[in-house]
Amino acid sequence: MYRPFLFFASFFVYGIVMGSFIEIPGISVVISIVSLLISIITNNKKTRMVLLVIAIVLFGAFYYNFRLDKMAGTIVDFAEKEQTLVGVVSDAPTVKKDRVIYDVKALYLPQEEGDRSVTGKVRLSSLVDDNSTIYRYGDIIKFTGKLKIPPGRRNPNGFDYRAYLLQKGISTTMFSREIENIGKHKTNSFVAAALNLREHLTAFYESYLPTNLSSLMVGIALGIKDNIPGETMKAVKNGGVAHVLAVSGLHTGIIYAALELIFHRFGLSGFLSLIIGSITTIFYSFMAGLSPSVLRAAIMIMVFMLAKAVGRENDPLNSLCFSAVVLLFLNPLNLFSVSFQLSYAAVVGIILFFAHFRRILEGLPVYLRDSLSVIISAQLVVGPILAYYFFKISLIGFFTNLLVVPLVSLILISGLFSGIIGLIFIPLGSLFVKIPGFLLYIVEKIILISSELPFATIVVPALPPISIILYFALLAIVFDFTPFSDEIKSLYKKACAVCLILLIFFPIILSSGGFEVTFIDVGQGDAILIQTEGRKAILIDGGGIPPYYSGDFDTGDDIIQPFLYSKGIKKIDVVVFTHFDDDHARGLLSILRSMKVKNIIYGVPEDCNIYEEMVEIARQKQIKTIQVKRGEQFTFDNITFDVLNPVGDTQKNFSSNDNSVVLKMSYKGFDFLFTGDLEYEGERSLISSGIDIGAHVLKVGHHGSHTSTSREFLSKVRPLYSVISAGKDNNFGHPSPQVIELLKDNGATILRTDIHGAISFKISGKDVKIYTTIPGELKKP
Amino acid sequence: MRAKQTMTNIFLDLLFPQKPYCLICDNRLTEPRSIICKNCKRKILPLTEPLCKKCGRPMKNNNRLCHDCQREHHVFVQARSYGLYEATLKQLIHEFKYRGKRELAEILGNMMFCVLKQLTWPAFDYLIPLPLHVKRQRERGFNQAFLLTKVLSRESNIPIFQGLTRTKPTEHQTLLDKSFRKKNLDGAFVILNKNKIYNKTVLLIDDVYTTGATAGECSKSLLEAGAKSVYVLTCARG
Questions:
Q1: Number of A:B CB contacts under 8 A?
Q2: Under 8 Å CB-to-CB from A482, ≥6 apart: which residues?
Q3: pLDDT tens for residues A183-209?
Q4: Which CATH number fits domain B44-237: 3.10.450, 3.30.1300, 3.90.320, 3.40.50?
């Protein structure tokens, strides 16, 4: 390892990972410094190496813990209460439809006995209309609302919002209706200028390009993805071209080339062009919001310029590691950010494997050979990481990128050019912007069409980390990055190559077997997944948020689908609509739209949008719809479902909740009762029917509302476990304390998605295992 | 100042580490900072007699002058080079000039110094690097002849004269025919601070000697400016 920064970065990363698992006491800094000092004076090369490694690892671990405390700030001590807070807007605000989001650096809590200064950042959201003012970078604002700690991971392999925000230095969130401007903080004029230019460019594109194209243009030029419609974003991801929406080496490279041209024309000296080039790059990084990918690219291009100026040879791998060290010093949590990992993975892949693939693809035309080599070598490293986080790999990406990347380069050049012209002389700029506009139109078409092709993507179930480590180890061996001698290499290389190929295809074939019932945490609402031994999947309800409330968050697309993919589920055998309330059914609609579904089961039709949409989608995608009523039964593998409700035409006067589809599922003598939103009236009808409703697990009706779960009903069901599916801090006060008391009195173990996150029951033989996503004490009955 | 320089150098060494592999054969280097391995270095052979008395071209027999020099008179006294512009040496100069490996000046300059030591030339007052046009130098970022001269000056303690400049952005000599080369160079060089070299014996330094046209034209300008005599030393010759 002759590359100093490769050496440092490797062990620094190792230290940070270590620090994230175990808290390192402060004394480690002393040990770190002592071993560094000894390593300087020692003459023994081996001793020096070992001591250096110890020093770097310990320092990394310490640094992680040190910065973690500092980043969260003291503001977290005031969370989970109503607070009035004063802070300064620290970034350009994001406006999305009727919402605005500010990242606010907290200054103090105004209190009667004197202001209490606090540290840390708040993500503040508010409603806006055409008349409201939007505050800007540097404004001091005062706002009131419930200060919250953002939710962590609530579903297995699900999104961890708390960690995501903390990576950006944000530790708390707040929704506030009233925001008041009380002053102006002194700002960095360089940053302000960059954010200003970003605003102007965005506004320019928005006024002279059609909306769908302008949002893409802003994404490509500045990495701002907020206004790209959900459908387009999905197509971009499935098409494997999401990287063009992250400002990276492509961008800084183009800016560098443009600057080079100008410098050359004016005959600037090496050092002057280095300085101007660096300032421009840093300015652009601020415009692009300082994402890990743009910082990485900016540092690497500046190192490249420095190499040219001082007449040294740039070593890409060493420069890459140097940039990683800088980024991790700025914020060690960067290491855990998906954007950081993907950006570095792609570049590592290109640096290490590009030459190999160029040799392998020797016979192809130059453009095809080089582009394919870039795509394959990046994909080799990025692929497993994408699979790990998103449970999906784009196959069409190999093809889409060939077309899209050169077009995007042209869009970027012409787009930035026309944007800058447009700032000086609008008519000319608005004329020039037609060029990127036309190219964007083509790119959008390519992406939309290609992402719809069969086999555009493959679903990869959640990979255990060990298989990813194994993958990279084998990759290193096959591509000769191990320090072993040639004789040993030739012995095991072929075997490793075979293992590698097996490993690549293994997870695709493998998906978790065994019987499992999961109550997915969809916030307020119900969603239950049943996986059979024969790998069939049954989904009862799919959560959902009323459309006027959701912004662009979709429970089906954003929670349920990733969860299903993480389980390796590509098609669903039965989707059950217990009834058509938003919090049960809306999430199912997007599942019906974007996944393969064989059958739909429902009870009583309702006169509402969701029912109509369900019928329409079923018609379009030719999904069989089955209306069920009491007395019917269906079986999957060795599981029987008895339909207990609705009764059919006889209870027409029942409310939609009381007409919920109620299912009793039996698996090897173990019974579940899924009640939907059934209330007292429906419960009475069940009891009087004389059907055996006894079950081991009861999904408590209507999210634990006091209008369900009568004492009598409970005495008939006699559950060992009762599961309440309700949203944390929901507006309805679910579950009611009465019901909780009642359940306790009946001796049932209570499991709540609002407390435990997703809850799964795994049953094999006589053995029942219960897993909760958020660990908590479980009392066994 | 000294400390600042070492700090900068340490930083640059960390950021742009020297590869521990030979530039030519890719074998692992045993000595630090050697750039090329001993084996490859040994393969770069110095020119040996018989050589043309004027331009230093290797000859079959002990003729005084080579064909070119018999036909055409050069105004410099003598030109000498370390080796032939081929194989490893050509590769090194290529890396040095066109791929910006400036640290190669050390190796190449030292080879030139070996030649200078063995020659029975008069004591020089100045070393003069063959200039590049400003535009070309900006493109390349450096003048290869100047870097070589710096090494030679350090080793031999002869000062450098920097008054020789190129005013015509001439075509690449390598792309031109022999006859055009001379024409291309007419009046291409201008000398500043002429009094400094008045009646002085000077040594012109360049990386490659091909036809001697450039070196000849330079010498002419230097002699016209009042220099007593001009010698030419290059790293390689074509």
A1: 49
A2: A476, A489
A3: 898 888 999 999 999 999 999 999 999
A4: 3.40.50
